[in-house]
Amino acid sequence: IRKENELRSAFANGQLEMFYQPRVDLITGKISGAEALMRWRDPIKGIIPPKDFIPLAEEIGLIRSMTEWALSEVCKQQKKWSDSGIDIVPISVNLVAEQFQDDQIIKTLKTSLDESRLPAKFLEVELTESAAMQDPKKTAQLLNQIRDLGILIAIDDFGTGYSSLAYLEKFPIDILKIDISFVQGVTKDLHSIAITSAIIAMAKELKFLIVAEGVEIEGQREFLSSHHCEEGQGYLFSQPVPADTFKQLLINKV
Ligand code: G
Ligand code: G
Ligand code: MN
Ligand code: NA
Question: Domain locations in the chain?
Fold first, then answer.
């Protein structure tokens, strides 16, 4: 209960903050996009990572409002950077399963885009395979509406869920993010090599952009780019960083 009240007042008092982790083109090394990741900046405890408050937010029914805030924050930030002459890239926001149960997410996305006047192509949404599979029919319907708004759609943690190829084909997906567990195995075990190669081959066949998550070492980058995975995200390139730091990365265009 105490933690619940702390989180509610942190949210109300503006202590939530979005960090940004770039994803890069594995050949050129240039930033091609980013993922927005939430942090709780407590005046005493410092930065609290999402694993310590997102599950609680889901439990107490606060996750929807927090995600709505995240979407509006990211859109406003992007527009501000763009207005100041910076060459912006698409940024993704993580959605939760609950948001694929009714139509509210469509209104939320429209409002975020309208209020910021950010072109839709600079916003992406991520949902995990397991979130998508809770109610595949409703999810497909909502994803089609999201696609119609011009927002790109990424499937997160790919390879860990149970989605069949048949379903993936029914969803209007633009990007597949290969789960960190496979990416980190490609320099170590044959199992990960086989799965990662198969995911990349399949994603190519279905014309998805492929992003490898959790790239930490050069050997992983090398494996991925030689297997024609286009983009990567991970500590090898950058940790998730505060908005001002990310802005500098965009300005330097590294
Ligand atoms: O760095 P990282 O610790 O940022 O994030 C851990 C997990 O927390 C992510 O995999 C993601 O599932 C979740 N997460 C982070 N930020 C957000 C957010 O803004 N919204 C939602 N729904 N989940 C988030
Ligand atoms: O939403 P999702 O689970 O995809 O969020 C990505 C998570 O992965 C975040 O918690 C982020 O901090 C974390 N992350 C990003 N890059 C790396 C990395 O190179 N190594 C590890 N171990 N975690 C990473
Ligand atoms: Mn994600
Ligand atoms: Na992920």
Answer: 2-252
Query: Tokens 């992983």 belong to which residue?
Result: 220
Distance from the Cα of residue 216 to its chain's centroid: 18
> Pick from 54, 56, 132, 58: which is nearest to 100 by CA?
132
Cβ neighbour number for residue 247 with a 10 Å cutoff: 18
Q: Whose CA is nearest to atom 11 of ligand 2?
A: 240
Ramachandran quadrant class, 85 (left: phi over 0; alpha: psi -120 to 50; beta: rest): left
User: Could you give the 3-state DSSP secondary structure of residue 53?
Assistant: coil
Pairwise CA distance, residues 231 & 224, whole Å:
9
Specify the ligand 1 atom closest to the Cα of 93. Answer: 19
Is the domain spanning 2-252 CATH 3.20.20.450? The answer is yes
Give the global pTM.
0.96
Amino acid at 43: P
Helix (H) or strand (E) holding 89: none
The 8-class DSSP code of residue 234 comes to: S
Residues, the chain:
254
Look up tokens 């500590």; give the residue. 235
Q: What's the gap in Å between 191 CA and the centre of ligand 3?
A: 23
ipTM of the complex: 0.95
Phi and psi angles of residue 158, each rounded to the nearest 5 degrees, phi first:
-65, 135
C-beta neighbour count of 52 within 10 angstroms: 12
pLDDT at 1 over 90: no
